[in-house]
Design goal:
single chain, alpha/beta, about 20% strand
Length: about 140
């Protein structure tokens, strides 16, 4: 963790996103004690498997920026962002999605689907989180 902290501090213009779950606890726990300003945590208990969380953890108490991932997409984003807002009231959050924003074409090509992405943006905007003081959501 100390070597990574050194790299983070040497590259202040780069945001380092560390996945925060029980498998990476030895890494993030040490970084959280004295967090570099360019550290962000990604809460993803599915560990990249795309499984939606039953609940979202509260934000780090040290002020580290953070986001959520795991099974998020156009079909469930509204409900999941409401759960995130309840877990982190007043906090600025971001979400991470990948596979749910892709479409497979008839020829088998796998593409990033801007229409799915725009659906997610519109869902978050329709929640009015900025007006409720959540501070915003970054997609």
């Amino acid at each position: 963790a100390e070597r990574l902290r050194g790299v983070m501090l040497s590259l202040p213009g780069v945001e380092f996103i560390v996945q925060r779950n029980e498998e990476t606890e030895a890494l993030w726990r040490n970084l959280e004690l004295d967090p570099p300003p360019n550290l962000s945590f990604l809460f993803d208990e599915s560990k990249g498997l795309g499984v939606a969380a039953a609940f979202w953890p509260p934000p780090p108490t040290t002020g580290v920026k953070f986001g959520y991932a795991g099974g998020l997409g156009p079909k469930n984003l509204t409900a999941q962002v409401r759960k995130m807002a309840a877990a982190a009231p007043g906090e600025m959050i971001w979400v991470d999605m990948e596979s749910s924003l892709r479409t497979q074409l008839e020829d088998g090509a796998d593409i990033f689907d801007v229409n799915k992405c725009m659906s997610c943006v519109l869902q978050v905007l329709s929640l009015g989180l900025m007006e409720q003081g959540m501070g915003g959501s970054r997609l």
